[in-house]
Amino acid sequence: MTPNPIVNPVSIDEDHIHVVAAIIWNQLQPDRFLIAQRQKGKHLEDYWELPGGKLEPGETAWQALQREITEEISIRVIAASPYMRVYFRYPERNILLDTWVVDDYRGEVEAREQQPVAWIGSNEIDCYRFPPADIPILDAIKYSAKAGTRRLP
Questions:
Q1: I need a surface site. Which of 42, 61, 85, 118 has the fewest CB within 10 A?
Q2: CA dist 11 to 6, 15, 60, 86, Å?
Q3: Residue 30: its pLDDT value, please?
């Protein structure tokens, strides 16, 4: 396993699974973002993660983001911006995690897969167990909050 994720890779020659993830800031509490717990029986079960999922064949990352977020938590993504890509080699699979900041959405969060969800602040990140591929993204969220800059570019 690669000890360190590759952030914003230029190209990937290895076989991998392309996954999208969303950083969704709460519209009423803008210092809190949404995380969801992975289900039993899935890779890295019980870990917490940013909502999202795998791209389907022929689907763009934007299309997958819209579909996955609606399927998983029942909100409709109106606008989102690419944020960070992380490539990570797990012993059983390689993933490209394509992360987006959701700039606007409609609806209320409803866990459609009965998974626990939580709105957390950047100061609470260390209270949860996240997959290794997510760590550079979460570190960027923590750094942005501590640096006093905008939430995320």
A1: 42
A2: 11, 12, 17, 11
A3: 87
Q: What is the pLDDT of residues 21-55, one digit of tens each?
A: 999 999 888 889 999 998 777 777 789 999 999 99
Distance of CA 81 to the CA centre of its chain: 13
In the chain, helix, strand, coil percent, each to 5? 25, 35, 40
For 85-109, the three-class secondary structure string (H helix, E strand, C coil) is: EEEEECCCCEEEEEEEEEEEEECCC
Q: 6-127, superfamily in CATH?
A: Nucleoside Triphosphate Pyrophosphohydrolase (3.90.79.10)
Pairwise CA distance, residues 10 & 79, whole Å? 25
